[in-house]
Specification:
Blueprint lengths: L8 E3 L11 H12 L3 E5 L4 E4 H17 L7 E5 L4 H13 L2 E4 L6 H11 L1 E6 L8 H9 L7 E4 L3 H8 L4 H12 L7 E7 L7 E6 H14 L7 E3 L7 H12 L4 E4 L6 H11 L3 E4 L1 H8 L14 E4 L6 H10 L6 E5 L6 E4 L6 H6 L3 E2 L3 E6 L13 E7 L5 E2 L3 H7 L6 E9 L5 E6 L4 E3 L2 E3 L1 H8 L5 E11 L3 E10 L7 H8 L11 E4 L13 H11 L3 H8 L1
Parallel strand pairs: 2-11, 4-5, 4-6, 5-8, 6-7, 10-11, 10-12, 12-13, 13-14, 25-26
Antiparallel strand pairs: 1-17, 2-3, 8-9, 9-19, 14-15, 15-16, 17-18, 18-20, 20-21, 22-23, 24-25
Helix pairs in contact: 1-2, 1-3, 2-3, 2-6, 2-7, 4-5, 8-9, 10-11, 11-12
């Protein structure tokens, strides 16, 4: 291996070109090729669409949006759980060049007001309520302060029915939509997704047709989708996992989108896989853990499954092995990415061996570049050496909406997106995420990567799920704290878990504190909020004084 190839840099070769068209044009092309094939199934309502029907309903909604004065570049918000209307609005806004603003279904009034104001949403499409959230009441609470918000349309109401039915005669609609389409470029911004929940205040990652259409396409290529695939999508549409890897992955290949439920429900997910004979299933690790833990798991017929995606957070080795062996997902892939990169940068192949799939997040995606650099110097590190992962290419966002300074902090002058994730690259170009730069624990000068300790603790037979964080320590600067969720019917003490570690991992990697829990604080997409865990643990274990000593 020459000196250049010993560096942690790789670029994705491909014989498949990038797609140079808008999302609307791509859907038209798919509908022309696969008009009679099933495109969308909403299991809760039993509603079904072929590609011809999906395209026609999308056109009708797009014409309705034109009729209420939505111009290209205007922001249209969507605040709802997974439902077919979400999908229709995703493609309808794309067809007229409006920017869809995804709003987290878990937001409360303060967060809602911030996102609507910061993005300048003019029309908001919203559910009336979901679970314990009264969306209508929260919108009423904040609407008076939002002078730019001209209209709110609630799903399931007469207002929505009128909007979705479209405007004017069919020929007039077609002319209006064709006229608007002629003004659009695939580099136009088409989507704003607010990131955070794990690290701090939301920033609006602004994505183009080109960003997300191509990323959805190549993710699906790695899963080997064709028009014969049916993809069960329990992950939220408001996030890239649902609307890009799920919806756009399907519509670029003529595959079928299956909505198992409005929000994640492990039983409903497996029932949908069984009843619809899905070939692919998506989820973050916690979702797969919940599905495997169902008391009646063995009663579901999952034999139709072939592939799927596990992503969103590090995938525990033992969970991955069970997904392959017990859920028939022999071609399951692991993806790594972030909203700012549309989202996927690396992915394992459908035919990778188990070792690659459980120990890496794959290799760089087609048409992209990745490098791993020393966070201090910016110099590319040798292969096998940890550093910050950076990515460059078509997938990198246009920027954070109306925040050029924050954009410049994330994307450097050479258009490299700095992910904030610590990673290594092996000799074959496979990437392994070892943690967030902010999550790395420095105990007495020793760097500890939580992922490594978590993987070890997963090997204890009583442990179902575990997260490791750093907490203040007066002597060592930081100490390790493990939050542990036990398997049903199992018992374990902190001393027993510590004893299990003794002699098997280095002493400085053994958790000083163990907290047993039934759940972890999470974002709606299933990402664990380690900053909240630190706050809780610091208070519970009385470590405030250590924190003060640390900063004194």
């Amino acid at each position: 291996m020459d000196d250049a190839s010993r560096r942690s840099y790789s670029n994705g070769m491909s014989d498949r070109p990038l797609i140079g068209e808008t999302i609307g044009a791509n859907l038209e092309r798919t509908a022309a090729a696969f008009g009679d094939r099933e495109a969308l199934v909403d299991v809760p309502t039993g509603k079904r669409w072929t590609y011809a029907q999906l395209n026609a309903d999308t056109d009708a909604l797009a014409s309705g949006l034109l009729a209420v004065g939505i111009a290209a570049g205007d922001r249209v918000g969507i605040w709802a759980p997974n439902c077919p209307e979400w999908v229709l609005l995703q493609y309808a806004t794309a067809k007229i060049g409006a920017i869809l603003v995804n709003i987290n279904p878990a937001y409360r009034s303060h967060e809602l007001a911030f996102v609507l104001r910061q993005s300048g949403v003019t029309v908001l499409v919203s559910a009336e309520r979901f679970k314990t959230s009264d969306y209508r009441a929260m919108i009423d609470e904040v609407r008076g302060d939002l002078t730019g918000l001209s209209q709110v349309v609630y799903l399931g109401t007469a207002d929505w029915a009128r909007l979705a039915a479209g405007h004017g005669a069919a020929a007039d609609r077609r002319r209006a939509l064709d006229s608007r389409a002629a003004e659009l470029s695939f580099d136009d911004p088409i989507n704003i997704q607010y990131t955070s929940g794990t690290t701090g205040f939301p920033k609006g990652a602004t994505l183009s047709h080109h960003n997300i259409l191509n990323n959805g396409y190549f993710v699906a290529e790695m899963c080997r989708y064709t028009e014969r695939d049916k993809v069960c999508i329990p992950v939220p549409f408001y996030h890239c996992f649902g609307m890009v890897m799920g919806n756009l992955g399907c519509t670029t290949h003529g595959a079928c989108m299956v909505i198992p439920a409005a929000g994640f429900d492990p039983g409903a997910t497996l029932q949908a896989v069984q009843d619809e004979r899905c070939t692919s299933l998506y989820g973050v690790p916690t979702m797969f853990i919940a599905e495997l833990a169902l008391p009646d798991f063995a009663s579901y017929d999952l034999s139709s499954l072939r592939t799927g995606i596990m992503a969103g957070s590090p995938c525990p080795v033992e969970v991955m092995k069970r997904v392959v062996s017990e859920m028939h997902m022999t071609e399951v892939t692991i993806c790594y990415g972030m909203t700012e990169t549309s989202p996927v940068s690396t992915q394992t192949g459908a035919d990778e061996d188990m070792e690659r799939r459980v120990s890496t997040v794959g290799r760089v995606h087609p048409h992209l570049e990745v490098k791993i650099v020393d966070p201090e110097t910016g110099i590319v590190v040798p292969r096998g050496t940890p550093g910050e992962l950076c990515t460059r290419g078509y997938s990198v966002m246009l920027g954070y909406w109306d925040e050029p300074a924050k954009t410049a902090e994330a994307i450097d002058a050479a258009r490299w997106m700095h992910t904030g994730d610590l990673a290594t690259m092996d000799e074959a170009g496979y990437v392994n995420i070892v943690g967030r730069s902010k999550d790395m624990i420095i105990r007495g000068g020793e760097n500890v990567y939580p992922r490594e300790v978590e993987e070890f603790l997963y090997t204890h037979p009583a442990v179902e799920d575990v997260q490791v964080i750093g907490v203040p320590d007066a002597k060592y600067g930081e100490a390790l704290c493990a939050w542990v969720r036990l398997r049903r019917g199992q018992e374990l003490t902190a001393d027993e878990l510590t004893a299990y570690c003794s002699g098997k991992i280095a002493h400085y990697k053994v958790p000083k504190y163990v907290r047993f829990t039934d759940e972890f604080p999470m974002t709606v997409t299933g990402k664990v909020q380690k900053f909240k865990m630190r706050e809780v643990s610091t208070a519970e274990f009385g470590l405030e004084q250590d924190a003060k000593a640390e900063t004194a």
